[in-house]
Amino acid sequence: MRPALEVADIFNRHGAAYRANQADSVTFEQRRVMAAIEACRTAALGGHVERCEDCGETRIAYNSCRNRHCPKCQGLARAQWLADRRAELLPVPYFHLVFTVPAAIAGIALQNKAIVYDILFRAAAETVQTIAADSRHLGAAIGMTAVLHTWGQNLFHHPHVHCIVPGGGLSPDGRWITCRPGFFLSVRVLSRLYRRLFLERLRAAFEAGKLGFFGELVGLAKSAAFAAHLRPLRRIEWVVYAKRPFGGPQQVLDYLGRYTHRIAIANSRLIDLAEGQVRFRWKDHRHPQRPKVMTLPAGEFIRRFLLHVLPDGFRRIRHFGFLANVHRNAKVALIRRLLDLREPEPAPEPADYRERYARLFGQSIDICPACGGHFVEIAVLKRAPRQAARPFSCDSS
Q1: Is residue 316 part of a domain?
Q2: Which of 33, 290, 389, 395 is the most buried (most CB within 10 A)?
Q3: pTM of the predicted structure, to 2 decimals
Q4: What average pLDDT does this structure show over 368-385?
């Protein structure tokens, strides 16, 4: 069932005015995301007509935009990703670590997304791997999956990485080492190393001329000012925290399902749009038991949403250690042998979209809700002309 209000509705009603008012600040990537969300599951992208073989019921199914920032296009991608991860889960404790950055770094990150988000990933991964490999801690090579989020519940810019880590690893001599019950690694030790690695990588990026500054941060382009900006950050505590360990592999999957393909705000959190004001539900983590409602002008809502558009090609889900893509299958197979586990049965490759949907969600999209019969395709609807698919005028073609 379609939600009463969608991000697409807000874009369609107020997007053109926002683009006109903010013409100099809306990037090509942001314009493309807006166009995709506005056109998603409308005649602009084409589709097909289906008819029930039994009762004659007819329906039109429009195509999805498949943009990773679209609230309506994450369900199938998420389900497929989780199905692929299921075979990699191990019967060991799993831990959840979160690495954040201070506000003084978040501003630099917003103006240099690809560079600084990549540093965030690499510093977090190197931190966990280095501490885990130390014989004073775990003494093993670990694996982890990391997911980048750039938002808080209020849609402000808040970059952080969620890391899901199996509670054990491979020793130098090829044995499986399990962590202590209920404890993985010291958060304080992780925080200190993470701070040092992040600032070293950020300084190296600056010296290589990879960082750009504008607006309020333009002064940081000078080496002395940049060094002065970082100096106090070397003395404060950087927030790294560990959540409660998961109860088992199924909890890990449930969690990943909520986090991996999440976008800045889901349609389900939107309440209404009236007189140019958007209302949505949000959780204040200082008072988590009392959900709140925030009201924003439509333009400000759009601005905050667009803060979280990622650079083209940027990977927001990454795997490290024995879960790294290059050797994951071989390493996981080795660990399963060490743990005396049977190899999972490989799932047959689905033939088409409908079969894939049925396998992932346990239900068919071909069933007629009126009589239980089957829908068959009877006509194809072509995409609208290019100018209709982009409901605004710009030079980004």
Answers
A1: yes
A2: 33
A3: 0.88
A4: 87
